[in-house]
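Suppose you are handed a protein chain with no further information: no name, no annotation, nothing but its sequence. What can you learn? This example shows the usual starting point.
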Amino acid sequence: MLSSPEIIAVVPLRAGSKGLPKKNIIEFNGLPLYMRTVHQALRVTKKVLISTDIAEIIKATLPNGCQIDRRPKHLSKDDVKMSSVISYIINKNKLEDKIILLLQATSPLRSDKDILSSIELFQSNDYDLVFTVKEQKREALKYGIIENTIYCPISQSKFLFENRQSLPVVYGHNGAVYLFHAKDFLKNEDFPTENIGTIIMSSKRSMDIDNQNSFKEAERIVRQLNEKSNI
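A reasonable first move is to predict its three-dimensional structure. Written in C-alpha cells, the prediction is:
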C-alpha cells in the first residue's frame, strides 16, 4: 500500500446518467459500482474524497478515510466539464498543496498496479500530469480539420497517404487514472498539458461503462478473473 499523505484520491460520481440510469450505484458483482473504486482508492492512498450529488451515496455508510463532497447543482449537469468540478473540489477543500489522484468509477477493470505505476511515474518528478492510455486506431493520424476549405492534418502531413500498417501506434487516454499536482491544475483551471507521462493499459481493461452492455461485459470479465485467481 502506498500511504503518502500528500495524495488525495478524488472519485467523481454524478447522478443523471443517460446511457445507463443510476449506473454508479447499481450492484456490480456484489457491490455498488462506485464502491469498487472507493475500496481500490483506499488500498493505494489514505484519503478518498467523493464528489457527488447522488442522495443514496450521500446517505451511505462509507469506509474510514472517505469524505463526501456534495456537488452543487450547477456542477451536476451533463455538459459540465470535469475541469470545473476539479477546480471546485480543490478550492473548496483547500487542496492546493496536494497531489490529486482522479479515479472514475466507470473504469472497474483498472488494477491497483495501474494506479501504483502511475504514482511511481509521477513521483519521478519528470511529469506535470500522468494518465493511463489505451491503443487507438492508427487511421486517426490521417484525420484533419478544415479551415476555409483548407485541409489541416492533426498530425504530420506525411501520414496522410500511408498504409495503416505503416503508421505509428496511436494512444489515447482511457479515463481510468489521472494524477497531477493541484497547484499545477489551478494555474489554468484545467489539466496540465505539458510533460505528460503515460501508463499503457490493454483495450480490454480500459473498458468504460456507459450502457447496459458494457456493464454486463465488465461484470463477466471480473468474474472470469476472480475464478482464475481462485484456481
